Amino acid sequence: MQFSKMYDIENDFVVVDSVTQDIYLKSKIVRRLSNRNFGIGFNKLLLIEPPFYSNVDFHYRVFDKNGIEIRKYGNGILCFSIFVFIKKLVYKKNISVSINKWKIKLNINKKNLICVNMGKPQFYLSKDFLCKNEISHNIRRISLVKKIVYTGIVFLGNFHYVVIVNDINCFECLMKHLILKGDLVFLTNIDINVMQIMDTKNVILRVYEYNLGEIKGSEIGACASVSLGIQQGKLEKNVLVNLLHGTLKINWGGYDSPVFMLGTAIHVYDGFIDLKKWV
């Protein structure tokens, strides 16, 4: 099996092309390959497949290091985009791809920057998510930490609980309140995005992912958080998001418009491994 090692703002990936290779990976093989001492070593594996639909170019799937398929919107989209371009699996700049039940459109420019249409955000709060403090006008103030400015819930592929603060260093304290004291009722696949607004064009973002803890970054989390800031008039329509391991540019034109993300991924090396030894 030929593979490529890549990384983006969120994870290090092993990317496998099953368009030109006949590859089938069982969960136990993925787990063994993810081992950093005895395998290739990675946080996530991205498997690129032929399209399932007539109006898309590719389908891709993402697996965590335990061999479990991750069914989250847009996960690994930057690594996917750079891979199909540098491996010449596609020669056009505008690409459509499916992941799980979603379809995503993207464009690759001359500088290998990827512009991705991440879909339209939806904003609301609900008693199904929050169990303390009254809910009002889709935004509420909470008194858990004095440095919290606003909070809101955004649906963009999955649900995001966005907390706008005036000091990103309160992240750990905030997590103790929200996780340990039960101020948030979690449903499946809800992430907490903590965002500090530096000015109207720059933010700092840290992300706590459901069942995983803090992660290095989140492409979809950046889009959800910035769209909330723009909706509330705190940010301009073009924003630079600073994450733990890189930056993303987010653009949102407002109501009923899709969010656009601009970013890239890094190709580290190519490799080959004999899967027969791993069966």
Please supply descriptive tags for the structure shown above.
single chain; 279 residues; mainly beta; Diaminopimelate Epimerase, Chain A, domain 1; 17-stranded mixed sheet; 38% strand
Q: Could you please describe the fold and organization of this structure?
A:
The protein has 279 residues and is mainly beta. The protein folds into 2 domains: 2-113 and 264-277, Diaminopimelate Epimerase, Chain A, domain 1 (Roll), CATH 3.10.310.10; 122-263, Diaminopimelate Epimerase, Chain A, domain 1 (Roll). Helices cover 15% and strands 38% of the residues. The chain contains 4 helices and 17 strands. The chain has helices at 27-34, 77-86, 171-180, 219-231; strands at residues 2-7, 12-17, 44-49, 58-64, 94-99, 102-108, 114-117, 122-123, 148-156, 158-165, 190-199, 202-209, 213-215, 238-243, 246-252, 259-263, 266-272. It has a 17-stranded mixed sheet that branches. A hairpin with a 6-residue loop joins strand 15 (246-252) and strand 16 (259-263). The longest helix has 13 residues, at 219-231. The radius of gyration is 19 Å and the shape is globular. It starts with a strand and ends in a 7-residue tail after the last strand. The relative contact order is 0.16. The model is unreliable at 131-143 (pLDDT under 50). One of its GO terms (biological process) is lysine biosynthetic process via diaminopimelate. One of its GO terms (molecular function) is diaminopimelate epimerase activity. It comes from Candidatus Westeberhardia cardiocondylae. Keywords: Isomerase. Belongs to the diaminopimelate epimerase family.
